[in-house]
Specification:
With about 425 residues, this protein is of the alpha/beta class. The protein has helices at about 15-30, 55-70, 85, 90-95, 110-120, 165, 175-185, 210-220, 240, 260-270, 275-285, 305-320, 345-370, and strands at about 10-15, 35, 45-50, 75-80, 100, 145-150, 150, 170, 190-195, 205, 210, 225-230, 250-255, 290-300, 325-330, 375-385, 385-390, 395-400, 410-420, 425-430.
């Protein structure tokens, strides 16, 4: 591999945690090869844009970033990858100012593509090997915590979703590779790992299911803690719940509800109903009373009545989510939801989105207030003028005063007050010496 001490590279990432992990893995690849990581605005030699296409808004953001990139970095090698590269590949390839368009399945080989370009070789992205698990363990990262990719793709085919089309069908990473990635990532100094994929609850490698794999990860030696990224509310039972008694596993789940109406869930072709979701929440909170749930909600799905939307508001209140990613339904070409009747107006979707967001802020503040007085172990992500910020084990944002502190260390903090009354509110605390 070519060493490029004088070459610089910048990254822009949109979308999910899986995209963030894959960008971090590419950052490690380029750093190991001698490239210097620079700011996006610093006229880099290479810019890699890792796109998202899950909603119309995602498409708009991705197009905007691509346009900014080609305008600001006129002489750079511009690589567009991610889900938009799959969804709009031919259209992107027709843009003269984009050097390469690389599909998700070949994303892990982008360094090879760029190195070949600088050495004068002509390599088309379609010649790159296809392997969604080819990434090296993250060493140099844009984030304090590091993800561990265990799975990719999805077989659910929810009526609103194009993920199976841009990420492919579900596939699981071999157990041995996952465990080795965990070991090396911990050796690289990361204190917090996030288990990620598209539908990680459906992980399966032979007889090893998701909760079996999670048990193996938790039993590995080392000073680290584990979080689980977005999870579908099906496919696990009592043994999974009990795993959260392990001190390495953090008491938080992003459990995707999408709607509080069974009729809407049926039209979405989700694999659960509200009763099943309720049972899961009760299972956790019967053992861990302050367990933190966050979620996704789609408002304005085709045919969503006032009654069905009210059921969603009722569910939000019942489950006391500390945060909700609220999405207005967005038509995706080629999905079954595109062909459903009774599509709602943008006005109605905006009104319903605002109601959910307002309720989300109220619930967030109530949940954060319930943590006041507790001790939290905070992973420091940033220190600015003597104030450290990071997240405690319940995934609540926390700030506190510190002297001689360092990023990527865990400090115990006693929570004293809630600051703010909006989506950006946070908990303040005092360092426990």
């Amino acid at each position: 591999m070519i060493t490029n001490e004088k070459k610089t590279v910048a990254f822009k990432t949109l979308g999910c945690r899986l995209n963030q992990y894959e960008t971090d893995a590419l950052v490690t690849d380029f750093s190991n090869a001698g490239y210097e990581l620079v700011d996006y605005n610093a006229s880099p030699d290479v810019v890699i844009v890792n796109t998202c296409t899950v909603t119309n808004q995602s498409d708009t953001k991705s197009r905007s970033v691509i346009s900014q990139t080609v305008r600001k970095a006129k002489n750079a090698v511009v690589v567009v990858t991610g889900c938009m590269a799959n969804n709009f590949k031919e259209k992107l390839e027709r843009q003269d100012n984009i050097t390469f368009v690389v599909e998700n399945s070949r994303k892990s080989s982008i360094l090879t593509l760029v190195d070949s370009h600088f050495s004068g070789e002509i390599v088309h992205p379609d010649q790159l090997p296809q392997d969604v698990f080819r990434y090296e363990p993250v060493r140099k990262s844009l984030h304090t915590r590091s993800a561990i990719k265990i799975q990719d793709g999805c077989d659910n085919f929810c009526t609103f979703c194009i993920i199976p089309m841009v990420r492919g069908l579900a596939t699981s990473r071999p157990v041995a590779d996952v465990l080795e990635s965990v070991r090396k990532t911990v050796e690289n100094g990361f204190k917090e790992l996030v288990i990620t994929g598209v539908n990680i609850g459906r992980y399966e490698d032979g007889a090893v299911k998701f909760e079996n794999l999670l048990t193996m990860i938790l039993e590995l030696p080392g000073d680290f803690r584990v979080r689980i990224s977005s999870l579908e509310p099906d496919g696990f039972g009592d043994d999974f719940v009990k795993l959260f008694a392990h001190p390495k596993l953090m008491p938080h789940l992003h459990l995707c509800l999408q709607s509080g109406s069974d009729k809407t869930l049926l039209r979405m072709r989700r694999m659960y109903d509200v009763a099943q979701f309720r049972k899961t929440v009760k299972q956790f909170r019967a053992i861990y009373s302050d367990f933190n749930f966050t979620t996704d909600i789609i408002v304005g799905f085709p045919g969503e009545t006032e009654e069905e939307f009210q059921q969603t508001l009722d569910a939000v209140n019942e489950f006391n989510f500390s945060h909700i990613h609220t999405f207005k339904y967005s038509v995706r070409k080629g999905t079954r939801a595109e062909r459903l009747e009774n599509h709602l107006s943008e006005k109605v979707k905006n009104e319903r989105s605002l109601l959910v967001r307002n309720l989300s802020v109220e619930n967030k503040m109530n949940y954060f207030k319930s943590l006041i007085g507790q001790k939290q172990d905070v992973l420091i992500e940033k220190i600015t003028q003597g104030t450290a910020s990071g997240y405690g084990q319940h995934y609540a944002p926390i700030r506190f005063k510190i002297t001689n502190g360092q990023r990527n260390t865990i400090q115990t903090v006693r929570l004293t007050e809630l600051i703010g009354d909006d989506e950006n509110c946070y908990l303040a605390g005092e360092l426990v010496l």
